[in-house]
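Fig. S4 source data, part A: sequence.
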Amino acid sequence: MRASIVFLVCVLGSGSSVFALNPALDVNQYAHTTWKIRDGFTKGVIKSIAQTPDGYLWLGTEFGLIRFDGVRTVEWRPPAGQSLPSTDIWNLLAASDGALWIGTAKGVVRWKEGQLTHFRELAGRVIWRIFEDREHTIWVSGTGVPAGRLCAIRDRTVACDGDDGRFGYGVIGMREDREGNLWLGVMSGIWRWRPGPPVFFALRGEPDIVQAFAEDSDGQLLVTTHRGIRRFVAGRIDAYALDGPNLPFTGYKMLRDREGALWLATKNGVVHSHAGRVDTFGQADGLSADEVFTLFEDREGSVWVSTSGGLDRFRNVVVWTMSAKQGLPNSVAASIRAAPDGSIWVGTLQGVQRWENGRVTSYRAHARPAISNTENQVVPQGFPEGTSRALLADERGRIWIATSPPSFGYLERNRYVPVGDVALRAVRSMVEDAGGTVWVADQAAGLLRIAPNGRLERTPWSALGRSDFATTMTADRTRGGMWLGFWDGDIARFQDGALHDTYTAARGLGAGRVNSLRLDVDGSLWVATAGGLSRVHDGRASTLTTHNGLPCDSVHWVIDDDARAMWLNGTCGLARLERADVDAWVADPRHAINAVVFDSSDGLRLSALPSGSDPFVAKSPNGQIWFIGVDGDGVQVLDPRHLPSNTIAPPVRVEQIVADHKAFAVPSDGSRVDLPPLTRDLQIDYTALSLVEPEKNRFRYKLEGYDRDWQDAGNRRQAFYTNLSPRDYRFRVIASNNSGVWNDTGAVLDFSVAPAYYQTTWFLALSVGVIVSLVWTAHRLRLRIVEQHRLEISALNERMMKAQEQERIRIAGELHDGVMQEMLAVTMMVGTARRRIPSDSDARATLDKIQHKLVQAGTDLRQLSHDLHPPLLQEAGLPKAVQSYCEQFSAASGIPVSCEAYESAGELSRGAALALFRIVQEALGNVAKHARASRITVRLTRSDGMVTLAVSDDGVGLDRSRLASGGGLGLVMMRERASQLNGTFTFESVPGGGTTIRVTIPFR
């Protein structure tokens, strides 16, 4: 996975404009992908390939037409009512006007804008070739017995030739050269069909068939026959020899790619030729089969090959491999060095290899047959056998070699010189310091010093206080000495026989094994560890890890390219860091870098641990970076100055929409897709037509009006939605290619979900109307019930008050007729007794007092009887009764009372009038007892169906504590009377500011 989707042209600066194949590479160095018939990719052999302007790859097979987006294949079927002449597809052409021409075993059709057009002139014929010339005329060749036919189709005009038998069974090959000549290949010869009169050139010797055309680097016409490739010059057909292995092959098709390389389809695989080099790729190399049928180059520069076993794709890579096929006598590389003269030295299982200007010189113990015509063998006397595990190129041009089985020495002018008798069993690193001394770190033997005079000294690791060993070294040419990185995970500077300046994980170094060291031009030491990339400078260590944007922590090695960009190899791949980004991290360790990562899809062989011996990487004079591959994979190379990049934004397509497992086609005219009501599960299939690395295409989509923001789908090619509301929708999808180039326009799909009947506007309006009617009806019923209940309560209260009044009348009558009469009799008896007692008797004075008390009690009893049954209320109504009572109260209490009673309140029911009268009595009684008022105001009014009684005084008021507790018994009784009449009772009192009570009841 890439750690960044930044467009590589912007990041890397000098990439190619398209992801075309690098012609300097062999075919086996390209990235190769295969899809096999036996794995179910197609039902049969692919006979033809075409790519339409929308980006789809079309595959013509013997069982029908397949549409391929690099990931998914879809069997194409004509629309209802239309059909192909045959499902056996022989030839395809994507024309410049966007039409797809389909040649079958029984004729040709044109597919454009949803319509198939048949051409009766070629009906029933096998279509061998379809070709479009520069004037956009379509040439179609059909077989026939005894005569094949060639038809030129332009617009609606069809002109055919060949019925005279001049083409034999038909035209098999066609090509228009750079000068506009149209060439036709037939049995036994070649036709130059135009311009001018047709001219035939016969093949010499035995009859043969010209199957395909191409041009060589000089513009001369090349043809393929059953006997191989031929060159056509000045009317003559001569043999054409390809440099390289002698390959007797039968050529079917030829392809000249955009970089000028020639590809040949043969029965023995693919033949690839460029700049005088020829290489092959067959089933033994991974091709789906040896027999190749057709070749095709897509618009992004990838070459597609169809074979009897399936489909293969060759595309460019960032990292390519040098192995035995490129001249290395052995593909297992154990060490690598760049010499001062610019050559690259590689230690292998079979000696040392020197690579310079494309030629390999092998230094080995014994000569053997050359595997390449570019290989030169040197067998120095005494050269050791075995694996060259470690190399060092010193300033004198000597190549120091440590081998296994143990041997140590150097090459100088093709002569091998052994050094010492020390047994070096596992050399980890070799380095030369500023004084020309060679240092060797051996896992078992310790640290060896080889002075320029040849003197050898050994220092065991234990003498340095180490229980492990050094895995890597680099000379400190500024301060002197050497930096050593150790197996257990720390570094130290070795000088004067001792270790100094030790850095560990506790001091900021990356944790784990130290894999390699590199000194920068500014004196910084870069340390590749299992726990990150560390920098040591001015006595301080800091480590770059995944927390700062590094794609992974485990780093095998680090090197700068010519532009000072930093390249790291680790467990997750090859990462490139811009120098400005690294400098920003150095200035601020919190800075997050932006790494571009290349992985196995870019040609890199990933490894968990670094392979071989330090150093693992070298840089050639032309800026290429060479490093040791995984065991058996030789040497890998990348060119930072020419990194391939794909600048073509991928076309984006919405392929179908699936609603509740039923697929709906997407209209080609962009019209809306109507989905049925109650659609629950929705799936939208989309794709991006970049075929270089379709697995690296990235997608974002958004359902407008539903998704709040773009959804990042990664490389998933489906979007899912559930329970969408019925309405119109617009689905948008955008995509990027393998280099991070985005098509921001993308594709759009308009669709709608139809509403069910109960989701329609009319149903909603009707439902709302019904609900409103039901609520209104329920409300009216509730009001009626409440009113009825209120009337029942009022009637009950009325009956209760009438009952209370009748009880009061009874009590008043009993008091008047019973108790008062008895008291009057007692008073008369006391008066009679008083007259009989002498006036000077003390008993007479006592009887006077008793008689006075009895008269006072009778008066009070008479007033109580009157209050219980006010006759004026019965006779004159509430207003008169209130006014009369106010006058009586004022006269009795001495407090002025202002009374105003509206006559309209006189029509109040007897029960309500009695309740209000009792409230007046209670209110005035409270004023007399508690208020110490100097003035009272009583108002009885009627307005808007309500009767209001207000009693106010200017007395001392009521304190807040009594007011909060609800007041005394009088207030409670007044409140209950108002409540019984469905009225309200309010009480306002301010200490020192008087009191006001207000009762409001409905008029009845």
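Fig. S4 source data, part B ends here. The chain has five domains: 77-171, 322-642, 652-759, 760-869, 870-1004.
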